[in-house]
């Protein structure tokens, strides 16, 4: 099979769909890989690195896109819609619930679009291709939050860890899944006061075994959210409903009651976000001030650490890429986890969660 690896077009997105080591594995399976020039440069991989393992470097985006299988990191931007083709396999993060325009175009063009974030397996690691980026985003959320709490960055000048004689900053995390858990690990390590709110009592019990008394664990309801958010120096949105738009848990009126210079980082922004006042931003311009609160809404946070993130992503995606390359669409019949990743196929919106967001697009 011919496999294309385009250079990412999203603002300061330096990750790449396939690393050189992944290309080597695919070449060993008999496939031809066409990598757009400098696609891996931002992640630390040169064109020569790809050539040395049998990849072919192509000079234009269309030469990478015009292949049987296209492997990316982020969803196609409007400028890339022209490259999408009928019968082509597209394997990438899509987050269609927050992007009606892309959903409509994928239906119209006939591409078979498989989303990393909805590939689903039974068991503890049920979203295996979302998990590695969730780990990174969770850890980065506190790292970025600590930076934007600095006065020079527009924050209220709080050191999350505090110092002897001065209380630490308070980190409130909405959602105790992978993102929330990883955020809490970093926040606890920095010495912050940490609260996690979640609706899953079993998950809260697990988090107690993980953190003990170092983290305050609360059942998520409107009363608890209101009290916690008002007191937060750093609020992290870590809510996930696979395939669906994130619910709005923090309304504007509650944001108004936060301390001036507090920081909100919503990791759920690529699924619509769980804070009413937050909208997507970019690595170039990551924050804005609204209701005197610093808002951070970069939807591709792991793009800030592309060397780590590309390899972590490839560790999880490569077995599925190999299966798609070896078997084509037959892989979707054989592998039930991969089949659940299909969002659009044969001009139809097929993923139930995305269908529930856009019922008028279902035929």
How does this structure look, described?
- The chain has 363 residues and is of the alpha/beta class.
- The chain is 34% helix and 17% strand.
- It has helices at 20-28, 47-51, 61-65, 100-109, 131-148, 178-190, 201-211, 222-231, 252-256, 306-327, 330-334, 336-339, 352-357, and strands at residues 2-5, 32-36, 56-58, 69-71, 89-92, 112-115, 170-174, 193-198, 215-219, 234-237, 263-266, 287-290, 293-296, 342-345, 348-349.
- The strands form two sheets. An eight-stranded mixed beta sheet has the order 3-2-1-4-5-6-14-15, sandwiched between helices. Strands 9-8-7-10-11-13-12 form a seven-stranded mixed beta sheet, sandwiched between helices.
- The two termini are 31 Å apart.
- The mean pLDDT is 96.
Compact description:
With 363 residues, the chain is α/β, with parallel strands linked by helices. 34% of the residues lie in helices and 17% in strands. The protein is built from 13 helices and 15 strands.
Largest β sheet strand count, sense and barrel closure: 8 strands, mixed
Number of strands: 15
Distance between the termini: 31 Å
User: How helix-rich are the residues, as a percent range?
Assistant: 25-40%
Classification by helices and strands:
alpha/beta
Number of helices: 13
Largest beta sheet: what is the strand line-up?
A: 3-2-1-4-5-6-14-15
Helix and strand element order: EHEHEHEEHEHEHEHEHEHEEEHHHEEH
Determine the strand fraction and express it as a percent band.
15-25%
- Rg computed from alpha carbons, rounded to a whole number of angstroms: 21 Å
Overall average residue pLDDT: 96
- Poorly predicted segments: none
Rough outline? globular
């Amino acid at each position: 099979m011919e496999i294309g690896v385009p250079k990412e077009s999203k603002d300061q997105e330096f990750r790449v769909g396939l690393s050189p080591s992944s290309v080597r594995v695919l070449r060993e399976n008999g496939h031809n890989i066409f990598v757009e020039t400098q696609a891996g440069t931002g992640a630390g991989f040169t064109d020569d690195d790809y050539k040395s393992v049998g990849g072919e470097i192509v000079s234009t985006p269309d030469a990478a896109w015009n292949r049987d299988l296209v492997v990316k990191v982020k969803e196609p931007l409007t400028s890339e819609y022209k490259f999408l083709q009928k019968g082509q396999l597209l394997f990438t993060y899509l987050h269609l619930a927050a992007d009606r325009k892309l959903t409509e175009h994928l239906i119209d063009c006939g591409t078979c679009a498989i989303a990393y974030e909805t590939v689903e397996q039974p068991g503890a690691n049920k979203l295996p291709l979302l998990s590695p980026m969730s780990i990174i985003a969770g850890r980065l959320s506190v790292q970025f939050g600590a930076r934007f709490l600095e006065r020079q960055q527009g924050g209220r000048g709080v050191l999350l860890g505090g110092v002897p004689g001065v209380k630490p900053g308070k980190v409130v995390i909405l959602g105790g899944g992978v993102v929330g858990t990883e955020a809490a690990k970093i926040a606890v390590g920095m010495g912050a006061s940490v609260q996690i709110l979640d609706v899953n009592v079993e998950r809260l019990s697990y988090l107690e075994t993980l953190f003990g008394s170092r983290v305050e664990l609360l059942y998520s309801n409107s009363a608890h959210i209101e009290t916690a958010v008002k007191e937060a120096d750093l609020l992290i949105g870590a809510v996930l409903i696979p395939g669906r738009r994130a619910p709005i848990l923090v309304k504007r009126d509650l944001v108004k009651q936060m301390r001036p210079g507090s920081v909100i980082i919503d990791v759920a922004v690529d699924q619509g976000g769980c804070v009413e006042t937050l909208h997507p931003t970019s690595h170039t311009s990551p924050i804005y001030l609204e209701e005197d609160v610093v808002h951070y809404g970069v939807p591709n946070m792991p793009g800030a650490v592309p060397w780590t993130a590309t390899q972590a992503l490839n560790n999880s995606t490569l077995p599925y890429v190999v299966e798609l390359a070896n078997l084509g669409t037959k892989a979707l019949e054989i592998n039930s986890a991969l089949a659940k990743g299909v969002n659009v196929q044969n001009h139809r919106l097929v993923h139930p969660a995305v269908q529930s967001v856009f019922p008028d697009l279902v035929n």
